[in-house]
What we know:
Low-confidence stretches: none
Strand content: 15-25%
Number of domains: 2
CATH topology of the largest domain: Rossmann fold
Number of strands: 13
CATH superfamily of the largest domain: Glycogen Phosphorylase B
Structural class: alpha/beta
Strand order of the largest sheet: 3-2-1-4-5-6-7
Largest sheet: 7 strands, parallel
Distance between the termini: 13 Å
Helix content: 40-55%
Mean pLDDT: 96
CATH architecture of the largest domain: 3-Layer(aba) Sandwich
Number of helices: 19
Radius of gyration: 21 Å
Amino acid sequence: MKPEVLFLAHRIPYPPDKGDKIRSWRLLQHLTQRFRVHLACFADDSRDLVHKAFLESLCESGTVIPLNPQMARMRSVKSFVTGEPFSFQYFRDTRMAAAVNTARARPLAAEIVFSSAMTPYIEAPIAGRKRIVDFCDADSEKWRQYAENASPPMAWLYAREAETLAHAETRIANWADASFAVSAEESAVFNARKDVRREVGWFANGVDTDYFDPACMEADEACASDAVFVGAMDYRANVEGVLDFVASVWPHIRAQKPDARFAIVGANPAAKIKALNGKDGVIVTGRVVDVRPWLAGAKVAIAPLRVARGVQNKVLEAMAMEKAVVASPAAMTGIAAPAGAALVSEALDEMPHAILGLLDDQGQRRAIGAAARRFVMDQRQWADALSPFDRALTALGL
């Protein structure tokens, strides 16, 4: 009989419709092939609760706890008293603690945690039991970048989160039997810290190239655009990147191509994003069941992010769909795409030229798109991506 493990995630790992959920879903799916998994996670979107039964069918047991973001933010204020990162208090919940304690009473072979914010639930060790953490990103660095671009008092709050979380990440890396980041670059952030005694490894994100296959999608005029951005539109980095693009780049595109359309595709668009809908050729879709028709219908995919941690799944998925991607250096970090598989614009003022060139040259778009798909087919398959994780499990005797 397969051994039992506990898998904790800060967000329900299904459907895999945003960056962290794509990775946690693939990790969970992979674990179920080797273990009987007891899943415990939060759901911060009530629409995702319909997937609870599906996850329970895959796992030995499943606990999905609804999380009210507003209440969680209020709970985060306690961090001023405890000295913890805000994110730790955000995900502290008595219901989750009870579920985890019940699972930990079982004869588990290991406890596997996705996201540093869930590690307090297993910080107290149990003799003979392995603890594995997938940090995914060095979240403390994201907050540090936010602090650098913010004004008081938010700059101070972001800086505090960066500092407290960096200390917590180091402590976690030191007690975990194995820990991982999403890329060599993210791993290096952890390992450069002087107090880290156990090296943080890494395994990359992959792409489901059977699902993200342009050959499977028929043209849909309703989803046609000249440029598309796909991403969760309540995530600060995405919101800021899109607003910068619309303010600084899109006017140059429209000046040359007055009928150009820009599609912003993603769930929970912030108010400033919603306000763009219907203006100057901008389309704001909100949450869609399937992003592929929008990728297939676009001539160019963009990723103009100033702040980007880890690996941008949105870029990998666009590349898998044979799209010519125009991205900032931050958005391409950790992807290691070869020359000719994407266009990288060092600054926003370079993007109009790159995008207009692609819009005017179908042959170049196709060549870049073909190179992009070859890259993900050759180097970004999930089975290959997860092999470092499997080697770590074997080394730990699991």
